[in-house]
Amino acid sequence: MLDNENNLKASAPVPENRGNLKDKPTNQHKTMSANNNTKEMWVGDPCYIIDMSQWADVLDYTRYFNLFSSKEAMGKGEGYNPKDKQNGVFTLKDGVTCAVSTTAYGDGYYPDDEGRHYGVDAGMLGIFPAEYARTFQRNGGERNPHLGHFITVPADYKVTVSYDEGTIDFGVVCINTQ
Fold first, then answer.
1. Rounded to whole angstroms, how far apart are CA atoms 71 and 74?
2. Overall pTM surpassing 0.90 (yes/no)
3. How many separate domains does the chain show?
4. Residue 82 sits in which domain range?
5. Judging by DSSP bridges, how do beta strands 108-111 and 162-164 pair with one another?
6. All residues at 6 or more sequence positions from 30 whose CB lies less than 8 Å from its CB, including other chains
7. CA distance linking residue 100 with residue 87, whole number of Å
8. Burial class for 175, CB neighbours closer than 10 Å (0-12, 13-18, 19+)
9. Domain for residue 163, yes or no?
10. Position 142 confidence tier, pLDDT thresholds 50, 70, 90
11. Whole-angstrom Cα distance, residue 66 to residue 94?
12. What is the pLDDT of residue 138?
């Protein structure tokens, strides 16, 4: 969402700080079976599911998913937000709501708290509705949603994200990017 100053605002509350993933036991977020009380989401690098023809526009619209503190700073290539603010919940122009965060060290291969791994080529990870990733794939998109993971979440899950010392927490899965 944009406020009257063209700043992106979070549309969902950020969960309380959960600390660093390496300090917690694995399987903190239990996998659930699909039923009427659940839905699917896709977790991975947004560059794998946003069409290349739209990628630059999405980055501009979201200030590189809050990497930059303002449109003016982005235009100059300066004015980065602090690492813990380089994330947020976004409603894209096509109405898709997602949460995205930069990683601690950019591109790489990062584990979550359930043993899955995520390849990163754009220095960020996000959570999107599964249908968004599948629609992109069905429409012959050049990118590959299989480079992320489809996960089952409660039906009332609202996208959220927080970042703490390299750990990205989407409320239903934590990914250690240290």
1. 5
2. no
3. 1
4. 35-176
5. unpaired
6. none
7. 5
8. buried
9. yes
10. low
11. 18
12. 56
